[in-house]
Amino acid sequence: MTSRNGLSRWWGALCGLLAAALAMGIAQLIAGFSVPASSPVIDVGSVAINHTPLPVKVWATSTFGNNDKTVLLTGVFVVVFLYAMLVGALAARRMSLGYAGLALFACLGIAAAVTRHGASPGYAVPTVIGALVGAFALHRLIVGAELMTRPTSDARNSVGRGSAERGLRAPRDLRASGLPPIVFEEPRSRADDADETAKPDETPKPGGAGEADDVDELRAPDLPRGGRGPGEPGRGPGGGGRGPGGAGRGAGPVPARAGTARDEPGGPVVTTSADRRSFLVTAGVTVAAAAIGEVAGRSFATRKNVSIAQKAVRFPRAAVAAPPLPAGVNLPVKGISPFITPNGQFYRVDTALIVPQVDPTGWQLRIHGMVAREITINFDQLLHRPLIEDYITLTCVSDPVSGPYVGNAKWLGASLSSLIRAARPLRGAEQLFCTSVDGFTSGVPLATVLEAGRDSLVAVAMNGAALPTEHGFPARLVVPGLYGYVSACKWVVDIEVTTWAGAAAYWYQNGWAQQAPIKTESRIDVPGSQVKAGKVSVAGVAWAQHKGIEAVEVRVDNGPWNEAKLGLTPDLDTWRQWVWEWDATDAGTHTIEARATDKTGYTQTAVQTPEAPNGASGYPLVQVNVS
Questions:
Q1: Which of these, 170, 219, 276, 455, is most buried using a 10 Å CB contact count?
Q2: What is the DSSP letter of 599?
Q3: Residue 221 banded pLDDT, cuts 50, 70, 90
Q4: Fold for domain 343-509?
Q5: 608 near 617, Cβ under 8 Å?
Q6: Cα torsion 488, 489, 493, 498: sign
Q7: What CA–CA distance (Å, rounded) separates 498 from 484?
Q8: Does domain 521-626 bear CATH number 2.60.40.650?
Q9: Is a pLDDT exceeding 90 seen at residue 594?
Q10: Could you give the CA distance from residue 279 to residue 291 in angstroms, rounded to a whole number?
Q11: Burial class (CB within 10 angstroms; exposed 0-12, middle 13-18, buried 19+) of 34
């Protein structure tokens, strides 16, 4: 299918795609120089996260896990490029339609940028510059594609049209006026004349001299007989029969041979191969510039990271050190989750498409709202408060039954409850409305934080090292016993003491429960789906933070429950390993289930519920084939 100006819409779509790639690359470059979070892809992706329906979010997290952000950004790129192809197809029909489509998308990008938390008008600059560059590239590519793909006759006619548009007279077609055609002879050298002189008796060709005379009468009046120009001896400034054009050629234009493009009306024609080369060069430059912009932009953004600051942090000795780990915290079972989850394997679930890079020298935590005394504390002051070290297991509310979004670490931080008490909350206060540097909010029950014996922390270290950036460097909250979406605000910079009605946290606005204590749960880590007959270790972990695990039971094929052996644990706030030895003597497929009981006497329920709105429930199970 072609547009009214003759350019295929597929060529237009390709031009739109290339222009969009350049626009995105340039925008990424500008964002890398200024504010990495102002990248149009990040802006649009953040809006997509905020407006995605709850069931879709749950599905994405459970399906893609820690790769959910990569999938989202890939989806954003796909949508942008599909839209760009549509814009290119419209531009192939009429350039103004392409500009309108590009302007619409730029407006959406600008709106997404300036409405982000903490955004300034400068956040719109990468999108604006990228859109302008994209518009320029789209015009150049569309024009180049038109010239390359236009039929030869159309190309010739376009020259005439172009001349008329510039006020010039188009070349005249004598045949159209009924006049006989002008025939130009092949330019000849003096050697040709000498041959003619040496053969005076040569038999004339059919037509006779009269025909030759007739042709001569139709020669252009400014050309001498025989087609030689002023380059002949004694005529032109070249002398000796050589003009500026070489031997035997005059200074003026040489008539074209019959059969060339000049024998058609309309004047000179730009060859298709030249147009093709021009388009390919333009397209190549566009792709190269897009790639350079994207790579350089990401490189500049990476240079803003805080890895050097992380390594430079020196932590004082903890005022309250974590108890030594008992010898039996790790059971000798291959494949079971280790008691301490390494930092690199710790789950990550958050809304940050780009990990915030917060310099600890500029970090501050403000505590305000329904308090008698507002407090602002910087990172150095935080480190000089009495620090507490403790083992605490974190769990994400998006964790399905038997899911991976749970991990245990040794945390170091200042007491959150002591900071809140220092601010002296007023009567009627109910929640700590916490805000991250990127605008994410969570709501922690004030009573839970102030509860005696619960080590709620403003954490600064994880497993003996500064917090990884993806886990909240330089500071985050850790509150045992509550799902992370209400208790584990990363990159925390603001805590407002308020009521439940006074502020609604991010996930509560998106359909999750306002308060979310962690449910008593268990998981089966081993065995896999295939085992050999004989003794088989069935093992995993169970958790009930701030309540503690009292027992774990296992059953096979809905048979009787069998009590598992438990690993040791330093306190109530961590998960607990367990193992049960199964005599797998019957070949075939078997179903294994587990359940945990916490120290309050509550036993994990068999009722299957989804993750939303306050955490999944049900027995974990695995299908095992014995051979």
A1: 455
A2: T
A3: very low
A4: Sulfite Oxidase; Chain A, domain 2 (3.90.420)
A5: yes
A6: negative
A7: 20
A8: yes
A9: yes
A10: 18
A11: middle
